[in-house]
Amino acid sequence: MYTQGLGLKEKLAIVEDSFQIAIGSSNGNFTLIPDGNAEIIIPIKENISFKCIGSVRSLNLLAGKGYFIMPRRRGAEISLSFRTKCLVIKLNPVYAKKIADRITEISNGVFDLGLSLRQVEELCKTVQAKDRFEMSDYLENLFDDISDLYEYNTTILHAIDQIKESCGTISVKEIYSNLSVSKSKLEQHFNREIGLTPKEFCKIEKVNCFINAYKDDENLSLTELTYQCGYYDQSHLIKDFKYFLDTSPKKFFLSQERG
C-alpha cells in the first residue's frame, strides 16, 4: 500500500509517470526534457539511439531490453526509426542511487536493468494499464533484493518537495534553512542520492514549470511567462534553455508543434 506520507517507513510510489514515444510518418527525433526524475527506457521491436545533449557519444539501446537512467543534468535526444516505439517510465529520484547500485552501468548514468524478455513484456503491460501503483508494485518485485529500498533520505525528499512547490524559484539557502541542516550536508546528500546538486534541480524544475505553463496557456506570450515563472529577464531563460535543451524557447515550442 503506497501513501504520499513522508515518514521513513512509509512507501512512496516508485513510479511518477509513464508514456510512449512513437514516430508515425518518418524517422525522427524526440527530445526528453530533464525533470529531475530517474527513468526506465524500453525500446520496442527495434533499437533506438540515445544521446544526452552536450555528449559526443550516442548509445544504441537494444529492443526488448530495459535501461535505467539516473536523473539527467541536461536533455536527451532519442532517435527512432519509422513506426518504432519506445516506453519511458519516470521514477521517483529518491530511489535512484539504491537502484543504480544494484545494476551494471554501461555508460555515464545509463544502466542495463538485466531484464529477461518475459520481464520486459510484463513491465510493458503494466505501462499500458496506465496505473503507476501497479507499475510500482511490479518494480518493487524486480528490485526485491534491495532490502533497504524504502529507507529513503527524508531530508532529500523534503528538499525536493520545497523545490517543486516553488516551481524551482526557491533558493538553496532557503531550503537548508527550512530543513535546519547545513549547506554542505544538504548538497553532499543531494548529490550522492540524486546525482544532481540542489541548484541544478531548482533550475531543471523552473524550466519544466515554464514549459508546462506555456502548454497550459499558449495565449500567454513568452515575455509574460518569463516573469511569471520567476526569471529575471529573457536572457536568463534563453541561457537555461540553451544549456538544458540546446535551443531557444521559441525554436523549442515550434519543434513541439511540428512533432
Structural class: alpha+beta
Low-confidence stretches: 1-9
Q: Write down the domain tally.
A: 2
State the helix count.
10
What is the annotated CATH architecture of the largest domain? Sandwich
SS strand fraction: 15-25%
Mean pLDDT: 88
Task: Give the CATH class of the largest domain.
Answer: Mainly Beta
Topology as H/E string?
Answer: EEEEEEEEHEEHHHHHHHHH
State the helicity in percent bands: 40-55%
Quaternary structure of the protein: single chain
Q: Tell me the radius of gyration.
A: 18 Å
Question: Judging from the principal axes of the Cα atoms, what is the shape?
Answer: globular
Largest sheet strand order: 1-8-3-6-10-9
Distance between the termini: 38 Å
How can the largest sheet be summarized?
Answer: 6 strands, antiparallel
Tell how many strands the DSSP assignment holds.
10
CATH topology of the largest domain: Jelly Rolls
Descriptive overview:
The protein is α+β, with helices and mostly antiparallel strands and 259 residues long. The protein has two domains: 15-142, Jelly Rolls, CATH 2.60.120.810; 162-258, Arc Repressor Mutant, subunit A, CATH 1.10.10. It is 41% helix and 19% strand. A six-stranded antiparallel sheet has the order 1-8-3-6-10-9, with helices on one face. The chain has a four-stranded antiparallel sheet with strand order 2-7-4-5, with no helix packed on it. Strand 4 and strand 5 form a beta hairpin.
